[in-house]
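tool_call: predict_structure(chain=1)
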Amino acid sequence: MISEQIGLDLLRTYVAVCRQGSLSRVAAQTGKTQSAMSMQMRRLEGLLQRHLFQRTGRGVVPTAAGELFLGYATRILALGDEAVARLQQASIGGGVRIGLAEEVTTAALSAALGRLHRTYPDISLDAMVEHSVALGRLWSEDALDVMIAPTSVVAADAVTTWNVELQWVCAQDYVLDHDRPLDLAAFGATCPWRRRMIEALVAAGREHRIVLSCQSVTGLQAAIENGLGVGLLPPESVRTASMRVLKTSAGLPEPLTVQYGLYAHDRRTAVIDAAIEILLKDLPAAPRAA
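tool_result:
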């Protein structure tokens, strides 16, 4: 059977490539050559008899079939990790308050919270999804135990940090008019993505105007795929069936990079450590020690 030929290591590699949008980056992190990584992904495509990736100017994004398989791969890996954790860990109880930046609360992080709840059913989980500035304020008020947010909104040291690459995207049938200001779909004024977006366009001398402002990734995706304008999204949020990634040849700046961190206070309970351990496995990109 095909399923017997697809091991967990291959699934983990596939998920990592989808989340980071780069074969070379995942190859470097795992100590493999890019050619070996490409061969692994071609083997997986051969087993499934489907094209799983679409190449962009800066890397790869999953195709519609790739997005479907990504969901199954994520669930399989999550169940395996959950089974091991449930068997190895002693019963842990108590409360944990987790804050997640809305713009990077992907399906993977939501799945991590679900796995935390199932693995440790006695934990009282209080999770909130907020925009970055609000999270920074909650952190300073000691209202959170664990937080995932941009490093720019808090002065504390992170447990780990990673970079999120933001790609310029538009609807598949969107036509750029270089004689008119660039229409933008963006997060609210307090979001660091919006600030970086405008700074990059100003530096490039590209006229622009905000046509839609919202605090929701789903709202931003809907605006982009329905042709309201150009926006910034990480690779895992690009819906390849309805969106396309814009290259610099289209007159857009290079993709932007924003640093995020996972934060926790120095004095931590077993509950908080358990939450951190599970969240670390499902960050949007492979973490590196701070």
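agent: Residues 285-290 have pLDDT under 50 and may be disordered. Proceeding to next step.
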